Structure formats: C-alpha cells, structure tokens
Amino acid sequence: MTFFKSIKTGSLKGAYALHGEEEFVKESALKSLTSSLDEATRDLNLQVLEKAEADDIISACETLPFFGERRVVVCKTLPADSDARKLTSYLPGIPDYTLLIFFIRGKANEKLGIVKALKAENRLVDFAPFRDYEAAKWVYQQGKRLNVTITEAAAKHIVSLAGTDIATLNNELTKAADYVGRGNELTREAISACVTRSLEVRIFDMQDYLLSGKAQDGIRAYRQMLSDGESTFGIAGFMEKCFRSMLTARTYIDQGLNRERVLRLTGDKYPQKKAYEAALRYSRAEIIKNMRNFANIAYLKIAEQQPDTLTLENALIECMPKRR
Does residue 199 have a pLDDT over 90? Predict the structure, then answer.
C-alpha cells in the first residue's frame, strides 16, 4: 500500500524489486506506475528489458528522458553473478530521472546479493497473498468501483466462496456485478447464485465431511468435483498440502504449544486454522501416512498401476480420523 501511495505522489526514485505470489495486484502496481508517465511520450520513456545484463540496464538507466521529467526501466529478470555484482554497485548512483523496476514472477530469492541490497534499503516490495480480511476489504472497495451496492458481510461471503486470490475475486465480482446489474445491490443470494466456489473451498468442505465421519457426504463431494472437471492431480496435491500443514501444526502441538502460539508460528489464515483443528484429530504417524498416500497418487497414475480416481477415493476414505 505504501508503494501504491508513492506512485500517486510521484515520490519513487532509484531501484525497486516487485515480487511475491499475488500476481494480479503486482501487475496492477506496474500498470499504475507506467501509466503515471506522460501519455504523449510514454513509449519513448518506458523501456522493458527481458534479460538482466548489467551493461544494457545501466545504459537504459543513463538515457535521458525524452521531453519528460523521468523515464521508467522495467527489467523482468533478476541479474546473476558478475551482472548482479556490477548492478549492485551501480544502484546507489542511478540518476534521479530514472526509476528502475525489477519485476519478478513469484517470490524472489532473498539470498541473492542484489535482493539483499534492495531489501536493506526498503526497496523490496512483497506482494504477498491477501489475508481473508484484506481480500474482503478489496472486494468491498472494488464493488464500489463497479457501481454496485455491497455490504462488508457480502464482501466476506464472496471471499468465503472464491478464496483470496485477487485475480479470481476480480473475475467473480465482475460476473456478480453484471448478474445483478450496475447500480443494484449485490445480495448474498445473488452471490451464491453466480460466484464459483474455489477448489480450495470445495476441498475444505469435503475434508470437513471426512473429519466428522460423514464418509458418504465426503465421497459425494469428491465425485462432484470430478464431474465438474477438477483433476485428481489437483485434489490429491491439495490434500497432500493440507496434511503437510497438519504435520507442522502437530509438531508444535506435541511440543506443548497452545493454539494461539501455533497460529502465531504457522500463520492465522483460514488454511492454517483448519490445519490446526484437523491436526488435533490425528497422531503424527497418521498424518505422515496420509500425506504419503496422497503424494503417491501421482506416481500410481504415471505407472498406470490402477485408476487414479479409485486410488484417490480409497485414500480419502483411509484418511478419516480413527475413533479413539
């Protein structure tokens, strides 16, 4: 948010690296930044480099703006080795009229020297995944921009169905706004009617059935996901990830840590909370066994030892907590 505010005030100077898993917001930041250049000379004062060769980057940064006060250089790769060392030395001397942006897909390797240098100067901007309340706030504000009446409760409901990925939320919210018509209220009923529930949400629902001993409901939810086009790879991979999170929580629980301390260490997002509650139902050995079962499904599919849909169904039934 500080970075967005700095774009509006035009106070950005020097070099920055934009990284993190929230790609939609990161793209929005870059778009806002490049749009801040004067439209008449934007193409002349914006240079995008696909490769991170030090000499090319330095040459681009040293080029004077054309009929403008500044230019923006965007590099879509982090430099390495000698190029990284040369650029790290150059960064403090970037001309005031140049703004250099390293635009990185996903997370940057913070062990790299140039990344460390940018981080030390508070120039490493992390676009981390939104928390539930942050995503709901974004939905509420975006709903206003789309000219629909939306309550905070309705915004939270959209997040509960679609998850916290902003690109997905943007698509679902726009679809919902078109459904009710601009200028009208986006009700809970309308949201439920047109917002697609994310795979994550659907798997958590299935998992809730299995954890509570409702095998038929859990398998029915699983089969419905397959009918809707979800892949066994996707479902199995997510279940492995769930049990991996449970293992982390179980490790802390076995160390005697309470819920508050465990969530402080693992994160207090919805998935971490679900992992903690589920971990209470299993022993460490049971969690590891289930985690391996779901991880093995990919191998069984490749080896064609048996149909993957049946393999996953058996793994889901087997992962139900044993009564103690």
Answer: no
